[in-house]
Design brief:
By secondary structure, this protein is mostly beta strands. The chain has one helix and 16 strands. It is globular.
Length: 243
C-alpha cells in the first residue's frame, strides 16, 4: 500500500506546484492595449494644418476621444469611449484650407443624442472641446492633443490614491517628451490640469496648473504609475493605455 500511496502523493504535489507556478506566470503577464496603435496615425501632410488626428482623455466618469479631421481623405469623424462604451460621432461641417476648424460632432449614447463642440486653430494649435452634451455625464472635461507624423499621442486612464482619491487621466507623447493630465477628486465636479516632461528612459515629472501638486512617475510599455504630493497630503497614482 505504501508503494502505491507514495507515487500518488508525489504526483499530487507536483500537480499543485505546477498549477501554482502556472497561475503565478499568468498574473505576471504585463498589460498591453491590444487595440492601440504602435505608430502615429497622423499623415505628414497635415502636421501644420487643422486637418489630421487629435487624441484626448475626458473626465466625467472616464474615457478617451479621437477626432479624425479628414486625415486620410475619408471624411470627418470622431470616436468617444466613455466608461467602456464607444460612441461614433460625425460632423457635417466641411474643412476649409487656411481656416480654423470649428464644428459640432453628433452621435447617440443609449439612444440619446450626444454633441461635442470641437475647435482647433488653422495650424492645428489649441485643440479644444469647447462644450459637450453627454447623457448622464453633465460635467465632462476634455484634454486634447494634436498627433503628428513624428509624435504619436498615447492616452492613459487611471486613478490616484492616498490622502485624496479620484480619477487621473493622462495624454502623452514620448517623442515630444511631454504629457498632460486631468484629475478629479472623488465627489468633486471641478478638475485640475497637470503637465510635465517625460524622458527617453520613461521617467515623468510635472506639476499642477496651480503649482501646488508635484507628480513623478515611470512608464513601462502601456502601464504608468508614480507618486503625487502637495501641502495637504500625498499618495500614488497609476493607469493603463486605452488609446
Amino acid at each position: 500500500m505504501k508503494r502505491i500511496l507514495l507515487p500518488l502523493l508525489m504526483l499530487l504535489v507536483t500537480g499543485v506546484l505546477f498549477s501554482c507556478k502556472k497561475k503565478e506566470t499568468e498574473t505576471q503577464t504585463p498589460y498591453s492595449c491590444a487595440t492601440c496603435t504602435r505608430t502615429p496615425q497622423a499623415a505628414a501632410a497635415h502636421d501644420n494644418s487643422s486637418k489630421g488626428i487629435y487624441k484626448g482623455v475626458l473626465i466625467g466618469s472616464s474615457g478617451t476621444v479621437l477626432f479624425n479631421i479628414d486625415n486620410a481623405g475619408t471624411g470627418i469623424t470622431a470616436v468617444m469611449v466613455i466608461d467602456g462604451v464607444s460612441v461614433n460621432l460625425t460632423s457635417s461641417i466641411s474643412w476649409v484650407s487656411g481656416q480654423p476648424y470649428v464644428a459640432p460632432f453628433t452621435g447617440t449614447l443609449g439612444g440619446q443624442p450626444v454633441t461635442l463642440n470641437f475647435s482647433v486653430g488653422l495650424s492645428g494649435g489649441t485643440p479644444t472641446v469647447t462644450s459637450s452634451s453627454i447623457p448622464g455625464h453633465p460635467n465632462a472635461v476634455f484634454t486634447i492633443v494634436k498627433e503628428t507624423s513624428t509624435n504619436m499621442v498615447e492616452c492613459f486612464e487611471g486613478q490616484f490614491r492616498g490622502t485624496d482619491t479620484g480619477v487621473f487621466n493622462l495624454v502623452l507623447s514620448r517623442s515630444a517628451g511631454a504629457w498632460f493630465a486631468r484629475v478629479r477628486n472623488t465627489g468633486n465636479n471641478s478638475t485640475d490640469e497637470l503637465s510635465g516632461a517625460v524622458s527617453a528612459s520613461g521617467s515623468l515629472s510635472g506639476v499642477s496648473g496651480s503649482g501646488s501638486t508635484n507628480v513623478t512617475g515611470t512608464i513601462n510599455a502601456h502601464v504608468i504609475s508614480g507618486n503625487w504630493s502637495n501641502s495637504s497630503g500625498n499618495g500614488t497614482w497609476d493607469g493603463q493605455r486605452t488609446l
